[in-house]
Input
Amino acid sequence: MSVHNDHRQRVKARFRKEGLDSFEEIHVLELLLFYCIPRKDTNPLAHALLERFGSLTAVLEAPAEELEKIPGVGEHAATLLSLIMEISRYYLVSKSTNLKILKTTQECGAYLTPFFVGHRDEVVYLLCLDGKCKVICCKEVGRGSVNSANVSIRRIVEVALGVNATTVVLAHNHPSGIAVPSQEDILTTKRLATALDGVDILLADHIVVADDDYVSLAESNLYRPEECHMIV
Output
């Protein structure tokens, strides 16, 4: 057995016994790279990635094309690293969507937050509920800030009508990490509420997500629906 193989086996055995809690970032990254770079010491490449991006989180959130600019990072390595955040979001969304009845702002926030894990750009989702606050669907309705041309109020209304929603909750993220609604967020919320009211659909809330935190416009009294089927 080569020195590298022996080292790999020790790191894998340590993970299987202890999990990742005792691992430093460099060792987590080194372990990941084992599975796309065979028969080679991955420690120098793990160091290079951390030096370039600054943290394990930043490495995992980096676009594949940026990862591939690091010497030694090929298509397989870039794909594997990019896959981690996508799998994390898929897992968290799958887990959260087991909750099918959402009657409070807190339940909606908990349901929606996982949809934004790992997104580097602003993404807008529409949560559609029936008259009993049962989840019908949660669909991406745009990319870019909620007041940008990339987010169409008409499309949001069409999506809500298409699934026969009674109540909807709009949600978007702030990749900056600060879940503070902007003035544009508030104005767009009111315009959307007016448009939805014209087709007898209630916009119950607009939730702004940043990392694992969120702010509800309705709960913050920045938006007050005339009537609400939810307990806020």
